[in-house]
Amino acid sequence: MIFNNKILSKIAFVAICTFHSCNVNDYLDRSPVGGLSEDEVFGSYRQVEQYVSNLYARIPTEWFPGNPGDHPTLTYASVSDEALSSVQLAGGPHEFTQGLINANYNPMDRWTGMYESIRAVNIFLEKIDHLPTTNPTEEAGKSRMKGEGYFLRAWYYMELFKRYGGVPLVDHVLNINDELNLPRNTAEEIVDFISSDCDKAVELLLLENSANNIGRGTKGAALMLKAKAQLYLASKLHNPENNPEKWKNAAAAAQAVMDLNFYRVDGNYESLFHSRTSPNLIFQSSLNETRWVSLNFLPSLGGSARVQPLQNLVDAYEMKETGLGIFDPGSGFNEFAPYVGRDPRLAMSILYDGATWKDITVRTYLNSGTDGVQRWGGLAQTQTSYYLRKTVDENGNITPNAISGEHYWVYMRYEDVLLCYAEAQNEWLEAPDASVYAAVNEVRTRTGIDMPPLTGNLDKEAMRERIRHERRVELAFEGQRFWDIRRWRIGEQVMKEARGVIIDVNDNGTFYWPNIIGERIYRPAFDLFPIPQSVINRQRALDQNDGYTN
Amino acid sequence: MNWRLMNNHAQSILPTLGRKYCCQILLLWMLSLMIFQANAQSRTIKGILKNELGEPIEGVTIAVKGTALVASTNTDGRFSLDVLSAESAVLVFTYVGYVTREITVRNQNELEVILVAESGNLEEVVVLGFGQSQKKIAQTGSIASISSKQLKQSPVANITNALAGRLPGLIAMQRSGQPGNDMPYLFIRGRASLNNSSPLVTIDGIQKDYQSISLLDPNEVENITILKDASATALYGVKGANGVIIVTTKRGSASQPIINASVEQAIQEVVRVPKFLDSYNHALLANEAYFNDNPHATSPLYSAEALEAYRTGSNPLLYPNVDWMDEMLKNGLQSKVNFNISGGAKKVKYFVNVGYLDQGGIYKAEKNKDYDPNANFKRYNFRSNVDIDFDDDFSMGLSLFGAIEDKNRPFYTDADIFYTLLVVPPNEFPIKYPNGRYGARSGGQNNAFWILNDWGYVEEYNSSLSGMLSLARKLNFITEGLTLKGNYSFDGYFRNSFVRQKLTIRSQYKGTGPFEEDSSYDLIGTEMPLTAPSSSFVQNRDVWIDMSLNYQRKFGDHELTGLLLANRTQKVIANQVPFVSQGLVGRFVYNYKNKYFGELNAGYNGTDNFAKDLRYGFFPAVSAGWVLSEENFLKDNRVVNYLKLRGSYGLTGNDQLGGRRWLFISEYQNSTGYLFGNSLTHIGGITEGAMANPDVSWEKSKKANIGLETQFFNNVFGLTLDLFKENRYDILITRNTVPSILGVPSGNLPPVNMGKVDNRGFEVELSHRYKIGNVNYFLNANGSLAKNKILFMDEATPDYPWLARTDHPIGQLYGLTSLGFFNSQEEIDNSPTQFGNVIPGDIKYKDLNDDGVIDGNDEGAIGRSTVPEVFFGFAGGFTWNKLDMSFLFQGAANANRQPVSVGYYEFYGGGKATPYHQGRWTPETASTATYPALHYGGNSNNHRASTFYMDNTSYIRLKNVEIGYTFENVALFKNRSFKTLRLYSTAMNLFTWTEAKLLDPENDNGYGAVHPPMRIFNFGLSVNF
C-alpha cells in the first residue's frame, strides 16, 4: 500500500483543522444587500425626488378603477349609467350593477391602499424639513416637493372621502405599538383637513410648472381639489339639511380657480385624453394607458370593445339647433334618423351605426358583420349597438402593426371647474344669477362645441337639471358620473336598467327597436362604499356606513 | 406464458427503438458486453436465494471458501458464480440478519438456497439520517421505507409518483400529469405549518432541493425512507420539523459483474377528462338558459332550423359539432431503457447506471416543417458510484450523477390548452375549414388546435450534475470502533429554455359563398413566421461539506453507537447573495442485549436568515425501545413471537419561512416611479419596505410518538402501530389584527413567531405472508390519519364565529350552505335576499346569521381541506413458480375541493355544458332536479362557492398491477445465455372509485385547466446476465 497509517492520519488531522479553522463564527455573517435606511433616503435630495415620484405613482389611475387596479372590464363608465361591459368576469362591473357589493366584497375598495399612501406621505412630511440642500435650485425644489406632499395627502384623503365619507384622520406616522383602534372623523373634519392641506400646498406650489415638471401638482390643482371636496361636502349625500353655507363655500372655492385667470375653456374634445398641453388641463396623469386601444377598438379592427355605451346616455344628447332634449316637444328629433342634428359631443363621444372611424363606416345593425350587435353579448361585439369613441385615440392601431396611441387620464379640467361653480352658486342662491348662466354657457358655447346658450329665466330647479345634464354630457366617460350619481343620491332613478338599440335594416328601411338589456340594482346604501369588514374586524371603533348591516 | 403476447410486445417496441439511436447504442453495448463475457471459460454455478417464505433475497454475499471469489444476488435473488475448479466447492452465504449457511457443491449447477432469519426478519437494516443505519429491532424512532423493487412496480416518469400508498404517514397527491412537471405534493404526517410544509429531501446523506428527487431513475435507487418523529428528525435541527425523505442509491458489492438491462414501453392515456354535450343538446340547453335570463325575449338563441341541423349533422361546416376533448387527445407513449452493472473485487466496488426516458405528449398535434408542437419529455440519467478501499482502514467513495432533461411543448401551456378544451363549445366553429385555415369566431373562444399547432413552441434544456466525494478513516489506533468520515458534495442545476412564436390567420365563415374560397371568410389575425428564439437561463449551485466522528463498539451485553458531525452548506441561487447554514449533529445510542434501547439525538444549527445572536438553535430528542418478546415472560410464546414498544419525544425546527430574507432588517426599497415633464422622464420610486422584527426566529415543533411493533405466528402476521402528536409553535406569521390605518401593507408587517398548530394522528401497518403449496403470497395494508388544527394565527375576531379560521384545519374550505333549489317565486320572495336577479330553480342558501341577506357573512366552514386527512394503501401479491403478480390499491379520504367556473358552471365565460347540467331544474322536473336552473353566461347567485358545488375528493384507486414471468437460462449464443429474462407488465391508475365530479380527485382546485394524471399500461423486458 502506498499510504501508511501515519500519512493517512496526518491527512485526516489536516482535514479536521482546515474545516474547523474556517471561521465557524463568521460563516453566517454576510452583509445583507438591498435597501437603504430611512436616514439615507431623507439625507439625499436625489433619493427624496424618487420618494416623491413614488407618491405620485400612488395616485390611482382611473382607466380601470377596480381593485386590484387592472381589471380590464371594470370602468367607471360600465358601473354607472354610461356604458356596460358585455363580458362578465369575476370582479367585473356586473357585480356593481347587480348590487352584489357588501362589506366583505367590493372590487372597487381602496381603504387599505389609501392608508398606505397616507403613511408614505406622512413619513415624507415629517422628514422633508431636515433634508439638506446644496444650492438654490434644490432649495426651491424642496419647497415645491413639500407643497406636493400636502397636495397629495389631500388627494389621498379625497379618495377616501368620496368612497366612505368620514374616515379616521391620521396626520402623522403611526407606530405599530400606538393606539390604532381609532374611530371615524366626520365628513366635515375630513374636508376641513383636505382644505387645509390644499391651502398649504397652494402657498408652496407654482402656478405653472416648468416643461420638465409637467405632471406635478400646481396651485390651480390644489385649489380645484379643495373646490371638489367642498362641492361633495355640500351635496345632498353629506348635506341632507341642505345648509347653504356649504354651497357658498364650494362656490367660493371654485371661484378661486377661476380667479387665477390662468385656465381657458377649450373645444379640444377629440384630443382631450391624448394631449398634455391644453389650456383647460388642470391635473392630468402622465401614465399612458397602452391597453386602451386594444380593449376598446371595434371588433372589426381587432379590439375588444369593453366599454359599450348605453342608449341611456345617447338619449341625453340634445338637438344642436334647438338646444332641447330629444323628447322635448319641438326639439326637431327624427326617430328614423336618430343621430342626425345632435349635440356634436355625441359624435365625438360615441360610435353609432353609420359613424366614421379611421375611414371606416361603422355598421352595428343586426347581422351587419363583425361589428354588428350581438344581442346576448359576445366577448367583443357590442350588445348596445354602440362603441366608445371619446378617450380612444384614433391614431392607435391593432393590426397589422400595433400602435398603442396616447391616453393620459384627465383628473381635472377647467370646464369641470365652471360646472362646479355653476352648481354650487345656483344652490345657495334663491335663483341663478348671471354668473351661473355665464359659467354654463362658457362650456356649452365654446368653439368646437357651439351649442346654443342657456337663456331665459330658469328657476333654481330647472337650472339644477340643466347643469346636471350638462355635466353628464360634457364629462361623459371621464369618471365623474359615477360620483355625481352618489353625491346627488339619484342612483335609484338612473341605475334602473341598461338599454341599447337593435337596428334592423331590411327592404322596407331602417328600424330602431328599443332593447332593454338588463335590469340594474341600486340601493341608497351604495352612495357610500362599505368599510371592508376585514378592516372593521381589526378596528372595532369604526362604525359601518348605513345599509351595510352586520 | 403466452408467447404470442411477447411477440406482439416485441413488435410494438421495435419501431420505437428504431427511431432512437441512443437506444440502439445501448443495445449494442449490452450485446458487446455479452460477447466479451462469452469468452470466459469456467464452470458456472447458478442459484437463487430465498427466505423461509420463498421470497428471493437481494444482496446476499456468496463466497467460495478458500478463494477470493465472491458474488451477490440480484433483485430477483439470483446469483451466478464461475468456479474454476471442476471439483467440489464450498459456498458460504451471508446476509445481515440471516443465519450464515455453507453448502458444498459437487456437480450441481443449479441451487436453491433457503436462508433462515436470525430472529424474525427484524435484523433487517433501516436507513437513518446522515448516512446512519441500524437494525430494525433497535429502531426507536418512527420511520417507513420502500425498496427499489416496489418503486419499479409503478411505471412512472417521476419516481415520487410511485410513493403514494406505500409509505404509511406520507401523503402524496399528484396534481398534474404534465410530462416533466408531474411532481406530486408530498407531506409527511400532513401539514402542521402555516408556512411551507414540504419535507426535507436528502440523497445519500446530502440535503438537496425538493425537486431533485424527481430527477432520479428508479433503477438507481436502493431505498426511500421517510423519517417522521422527533427522534429520527432531530438530527436535522432547524430543518427537520416537516419530516425528511431519505433516498439511498445503489452501490456495488464484491461480486462478479451483475448486469441488468431492461426495456419498457408504455401507453398512457388521461385518467379522466370531463364529458361535454354535443351541439344539439348544447343548443337546447342554451336556448333554455337564454329564456331563463331573458323571459321577455321573443326569439331563441338557436332557431328550430339550427337545432335540426345540429341533430342530424347535415351541414357540419355551417353547424359544427366538435367533441374537442376527444379530437384533441390521443394515447401517449412512454419508453424507458435502463442498463446497470454492479460488482467489484475486494477493494473496489462499483455501481454504474444508465437510464433513458422518453415520455410523449397526448395531443393530436400536427407536426410542421419547423417543429413538432406536441409535448415531449426526455431524460437521460447516469450514475457511477465507486467505492475504493485503500487498505483496511481507509476508504474512499466517489458518486457521480447526471440528469439531462429535454422538454418540448407548445407555446401555450397545458393549462391553457386544457382550459380551451373545457371552454370552447362544440358548435363554435369547425376545427378547420376546407380553405385550410383554422375556424374562428371574432370575440369568441380560441380554437384549441390553433393554439396548439400554430403558436410556436418552447424548448427546455435542463441539466443537473452532482458529485460527492466521501472519505472514511478508521481510527482504531485511538480507540477501537472509532471512524472519521467526511463528505464533500456539489450540485449544479442549469436550466436553459427558449421560446419561438408564430401566428397564422384563422377564418370565420361569412355565411355564404363556397367553403373552399378565402373570399367566403372574414380572415382573422395576422400571419407571422416563426420568430427568432428568445431565451432564458438560470443556474444554481449547492455545496455541502460534512465531517464526522463515528463510534460503534460492543462491550459484552452493552453496545454503544455515537456520532458527532459538523456540516456546512452554501446555496447559490441565480444572482442572490448565497444562502448559508451550518450545524452540528450529535447522536448517542445504547443497546442492552437487544432488549433495551435508548437514544439521544440532537441537532445544533443555524442559518443566516436570523439576527446574529439568534441564529443557532438546539434541537434534542430522546427515544427508547423495549423488546418485550425478549423478556422471559414472553420468550418463545407461540402466538406472539415479537413485541416491541417504543417511544420518542423531542424538538425540531422549520426555517422555511418563504419569501423574504433577512427578516431582522428594515429597509427602504425601490418601488414604482412616475413620469414627469414634456418628455415623460421617468423618475424611479423609493418607498418604505418591509418592517423588521429583530427577534424573528424559526418555528419549532414538539413531537411525541409511541409505537408498537409485533409479529405473530412465526412472522406470518405483523402489526405496527404509531401514535403521534405534534405541537407546532412559534410559527412565523404576519399579524392579522393590526388595523389598516397603520398604513403598512400586510406583506410588510414585521413577521412574528406567534402561530400555533396542533397535529395528531396515527399510522397502522398490517402485514401477512404465507406459503400454500407452491404459492407464496403476501398482503399488506397501511393507513394513516393526520388531523391538524390552527390554534393561533392572530386572527381578527370576525363578526360571526363561523367565519373564523382559527380552530379549523389548515386550508379549510369556506362557502355558503345550499338548501336546495327555489321552487317558486313566492318562495324567493319569502326568503332572504340573495344575489342579483333570482329565479325559481336557483340555489337557495342558508342565512347563517338570520339577517335576511345572503352575503359573505354566511360563508362558513364547509367540508374539509384539499389535503386528505386519511391516506391508505393495500398491497398484495403472490409468486407461483416463475409467475408473479402484485397489486396496490391506494386511497384517500376526508378531503374536499371547491370547483369553480369552467366545466362546473354551465355556459360559463361563453363556455359549454356537460351531461351533468341536463339534470337542471325546470318547473316540470322540480322534484327530481340535480342541478339549478340554467343561465347563459355567469350567474351571480348560483355560481359561487357553496356546498352545492363542493366535491368530496375521497377516492380509492387500483394504483398498480404487475404481472411477470421469469425465464431462466435463456440461450442466446452457443455457450452463452441470459441468466434470467423477465417479461412483465405493469399498469398504473387502472380504476378509480370516487364521488368527485368531472375531474380526477387528485386535482385539487376543481378548475380543469391542468394536465390530468395518466393511466399507464406498461410492458417490459428485463434481462440479467
From TrEMBL, chain A:
InterPro entries: SusD-like_N, SusD_RagB_dom, TPR-like_helical_dom_sf. Its main location: membrane. Residues 301-548 form the RagB/SusD domain. Keywords: Cell outer membrane, Membrane, Signal. Belongs to the SusD family. This is RagB/SusD family nutrient uptake outer membrane protein. It comes from Sphingobacterium olei. GO terms for cellular component: cell outer membrane. The keyword Nucleotide-binding does not apply. Residues 27-228 form the SusD-like N-terminal domain. It is found in: Cell outer membrane. Pfam families: SusD-like_3, SusD_RagB.
UniProtKB/TrEMBL annotation, chain B:
Gene3D superfamilies: Carboxypeptidase-like, regulatory domain, TonB-dependent receptor, beta-barrel domain, TonB-dependent receptor, plug domain. Keywords: Cell outer membrane, Membrane, Receptor, Transmembrane, Transmembrane beta strand, Transport. InterPro entries: Beta-barrel_TonB_sf, CarboxyPept-like_regulatory, Plug_dom, Plug_dom_sf, TonB-dep_OMP_SusC/RagA, TonB-dep_OMP_SusC/RagA_CS, TonB-dep_rcpt-like. It is a multi-pass membrane protein. Its main location: membrane. SUPFAM superfamilies: Carboxypeptidase regulatory domain-like, Porins. Residues 137-244 form the TonB-dependent receptor plug domain. It holds the Pfam family CarbopepD_reg_2. GO terms for cellular component: cell outer membrane. It is found in: Cell outer membrane. Belongs to the TonB-dependent receptor family. This is TonB-dependent receptor. It comes from Sphingobacterium olei.
